[in-house]
Design goal:
four-stranded antiparallel beta sheet, disordered N terminus, ABC transporter ATP-binding protein, alpha/beta, single chain, Rossmann fold, nucleotide-binding, 266 residues, 2 domains
Length: 266
């Protein structure tokens, strides 16, 4: 992390740990994410990546350590407080209200995602509708706004999750395996969506096993293993780390990724 990003971390995690009884899913993890940055997180299944997202978003609060968002300690905040503070999230599985239209799903995010609604009204209001329509437009699915969510294809449902998150007007977006199960062409479509979100000024942390996606989009990459950080640095340095190759990528995948990176950057 260099320049302004290094000087102004939007998110700071310090010695964060999360244990479930005797099992330590996240161990003494420290890192910063600069405003406007994309941090990519990779690692084997069971490395603690999704648990880290649950800790940051408040679904499973940290057992140890501190999490600071834009100068505010959110370590012990409830999930809705963290959402209202500016953290949105998408999930591995397509989350949505299947019987509602795409626009209605995004409207839920726009209405509930920024303010407490102790007594919800029957109408969302003009601001929420405008935020929902803008999010649908940004993600390129405005023409599917009136489609029933349960009948949308997988790609559109992933884009819909992103639109619902963006309707909350987040500072930080956590994306958990956004291209899992997609074709190569669909992966490229999601890449364009992530770039549009970044261009809107949103900081992004994304978890992904598709390394082409991870290295193309990330400003920095962090690799986790057994709840610990085993690498943090530029994507171009990833394949020079022997531990990453040995415990995660393997030699064959490393050689294919190197060829891809050389063809992309060289």
């Amino acid at each position: 992390m260099t320049g302004d990003a290094a000087a102004t971390p939007l998110l700071s995690c310090r010695h964060v740990g999360k244990s479930f009884g005797a099992l330590a899913a996240v161990r003494d993890l420290s890192f910063d994410v600069g405003a406007g940055e994309i941090l990519g997180i990779g690692g084997p299944n069971g490395a603690g990546k999704t648990t880290l997202f649950e800790v940051i978003s408040g679904l499973n609060p940290a057992t140890k350590g501190a999490i600071v968002l834009d100068g505010q300690d959110i370590t012990k905040h409830a999930p809705e407080q963290i959402c209202h503070a500016g953290v949105a999230r998408t999930f591995q599985l397509n989350a949505g209200f299947d019987s509602m239209t795409a626009r209605e799903n995004v409207l839920v995010g726009a209405y509930f995602g920024r303010n407490n609604r102790a007594v919800p009204t029957l109408r969302a209001g003009r601001a929420a509708h405008e935020a929902a329509d803008a999010a649908l437009e940004m993600l390129g699915i405005a023409d599917r706004a009136d489609k029933v969510t349960g009948k949308l294809p997988v790609l559109d449902r992933k884009l819909l999750m992103m639109a619902s998150a963006m309707a909350t007007k987040p500072k930080l977006l956590l994306m958990d395996e956004p291209v899992g199960g997609l074709t190569a062409r669909e992966v490229d479509r999601v890449m364009d969506a992530v770039r549009a979100i970044k261009a809107a000024g949103v900081t992004i942390i994304l978890i992904e096993h598709v390394m082409r996606f991870l290295v193309r989009l990330s400003d920095r990459i962090m690799i986790m293993h057994h709840g610990e950080k085993i690498f943090e640095g530029l994507p171009t340095k990833l394949l020079d780390d022997r531990t990453v190759v040995d415990v995660y990528l393997g030699q064959g995948a490393s050689e294919r990724l190197r060829s891809f990176m050389e063809s992309t950057h060289g």
